[in-house]
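Chapter review: from sequence to fold.
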Amino acid sequence: MNTIQSYLDAHRERFMEEWASLIRIPSVSCQAEHKSDMLRCAERWKELLLQAGCQKAEILPSAGNPFVYAEYNSQFSTLNSQLPTVLVYAHYDVMPVEPLDQWLSNPWEPTIRDGRLYARGADDDKGQAMIQAKAFEYLVKTGQMRCNVKFIFEGEEEIGSPSLEAFLEDHKEMLKADIILVSDTSMIGKDTPSITTGLRGLAYWQIEVDGPNRDLHSGHFGGAVKNPVNALCEMLAKVVDENGRITIPHFYDDVLPIPEAERAMIAQIPFDQKKYNQAIDVDDVFGEAGYSTLERNSCRPSFDICGIWGGYTGEGSKTVLPAKAFAKVSCRLVANQDHEKISQAFIDYIKSLAPKSVRVHVTPMHGGQGYVCPIDIPAYKAAEKGFEIAFGKRPLAARRGGSIPIIAAFEQILGCKTILMGFGLEQNAIHSPNESMDLEVWEKGIIAVTEFYKHLAE
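The token string follows.
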């Protein structure tokens, strides 16, 4: 029987060239000069998905860059109407390559060094999307695909997916599926496979505090007029207490406790607190009492001042009492917290802390929902088995502290869960010069996704 490893061995050269053909297209979504490249990359993906075995593939317009949609109806579907339908999501846009002088090779021409392929998009997301395409191809070409599969690839993920939600709303029936499969995340390590089971949500604001109608002489007015910078600092200092708890009223009303089984799995993640501190050059860490560092930065909410300014900050001294003060602040939220509800709660709270001597204006900047995937659903179990077969050990369930708002949008609009079956590594340096993909991990990823489909069908 034709095994996945023998198929990889027989087609490796072609796989690499097809991967390279995508990388050579500079599909940078944030730069207008690459507008034509976005369509060119979408068209190349359409070709590749048809060659891989999709029965239909098309390029669909949006308010921004086009979407690529493809589908495959399993030959077994007439025998069993209960075959699962998997919707594979990926993105074909990439980040800019600057600064160019820090690349060791041409970012648009794949280069292999020390078992890694170096190029922009090698991992994020052309390399990981190719993992999905090639696992699919193997199962279709060998007559083993017992799932119905749909693909939706977008060209705006790196600029916040501004067209995605409207597209999902307009194409709900077309995109209907039992589970969404995404390879656009990372593992804990090459020897520590993991599945991302949660992402934090986000709420972000800009605050402006107005005081007197002009900057004042601090000698003539200091002590008699409230300084807006002082007022802003005093207000923000009250948002987190000495135990690391956020003090916004009703902030924790919808925060769900971390299941004990998940806490036990988090405890298994290799982690050295001393090395963590040394890596970021801090003497100690701080966070919500009763939780470990890994729990705090992935499963619990947080509040941070991202920037604060006001008054004179130039060279030398200038004795002024500033007329205005500003700050940009954010909350990382957890699943079940509504970012719009939290946004309004923060605005009401920060204004309530303001002294009468200043005026406070708060502008919501952006936000998104958090996401958690249960680890007991069949699709998760299938992904777990896939990793175990490919990497030789059971993957850990690991929530991540970052935010991918589109994952929550999938659940809200399409009504199904997402499995984040990512194969990136920290050393892949996505978004940075010399982005790369470990070729051994890349091939194991193809094996893992192949086994996912087999076990899901069972």
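Two observations follow directly from the output. The CA atoms of residues 107 and 120 lie 5 Å apart. The chain has 13 helices and 18 strands.
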